Each structure stands twice: as structure tokens, then as C-alpha cells.
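FAQ: What does the model actually see?

It sees only this:
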Amino acid sequence: MFRWPEGLDRRPGEAKAFYATIAAATLGSVALSFTALDPIRALYWTAVINGILAVPLMAIMVMMASSPRVMGRLTAPRWMVVVGWLAVLIMALATIGFFVL
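And it is asked to produce this:
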């Protein structure tokens, strides 16, 4: 994505940004272990937030995939758009069901 030299097969001098990212994630994880944060509860709520955000993001992707202005000649076929909207509907119902039940 950033076109950085990457991979554990490279030496740290060759892939500085890659190893800096790994080091930052490791240090952040170690710092979290010293807080009162329950990791299982954090994972649970992260999944809930992900499920809630998935519905509008999926809808935006379906709208973009079906837009000739955005996609040009590579617009998604009608059947794919219908399947995409069905997936959005199912995901929305599942999200609503989570809060109702």
C-alpha cells in the first residue's frame, strides 16, 4: 500500500518503516497490558462496533460499484448489485437483531 520495502526476510536497515510498525504495535500492546482494560471485553465491543459500521460501509460500496460515474465501464452487473443489497439487508437485520434480542 505504501510501497515500503517489507517482509521479515529483510533486515531492519532495509525495511525501517516495516519494522517500526511492528515495534509500535508491540509497544502499544505491552502498554495496554498495564491498564485495567479487559482484553476479552475490548475484543467483544470491537466486534460489535465493526458489525455496526459494516452496514453503511457495505451500502456505500454497493452504490459505488453500481455507479457508472464512479466505475465507468466496469460497473457491477445488475445481479451483483442485487446480491450486494441483499447482503446489506441481511447484515442490517442481524445488527438490529443483536440489539433487540
